[in-house]
Amino acid sequence: MFRFPKGSIVKHKSGEIRGEIVNVFEQGDAATGYYVKWDDGNHSYHLEKELSWANVDRPRMHYTQQSSK
């Protein structure tokens, strides 16, 4: 089972940059990987051990509001 679901707000352990989990890659016994869209507009792939929750008090998720049309 993976730690960060799609839409989670995370930060990279090497700094304070934050981003949103765009995609989760689970491959059997291999380490879970995540594709992250960072606040600066860049995208990159990271292993679970390189990421942490952006807010230590509680996990936050990014939800897009659906149109009422």
Would you kindly provide a written description of the structure presented here, covering whatever features stand out?
This protein is an all-beta fold. Helices cover 0% and strands 38% of the residues. It contains no helices and five strands. It has strands at 9-12, 18-25, 33-38, 43-47, 51-53. A five-stranded antiparallel β-sheet has the order 4-3-2-1-5, with no helix packed on it. Strand 2 and strand 3 (33-38) form a beta hairpin. The radius of gyration is 13 Å and the shape is globular.
Q: What profile does the largest beta sheet have?
A: 5 strands, antiparallel
Strand count: 5
Which oligomerization state do the chains in this entry correspond to?
single chain
Distance between the termini: 36 Å
Order of helices and strands: EEEEE
Shape: globular
| Low-confidence parts | none
Detail the topology: elements first, then pairings.
Blueprint: E1 9-12, E2 18-25, E3 33-38, E4 43-47, E5 51-53
Antiparallel strand pairs: 1-2, 1-5, 2-3, 3-4
List keywords for this structure.
69 residues; mainly beta; 5-stranded antiparallel β-sheet; 0% helix
Give a short summary of the structure.
The chain has 69 residues and is mainly beta. The chain contains no helices and five strands.
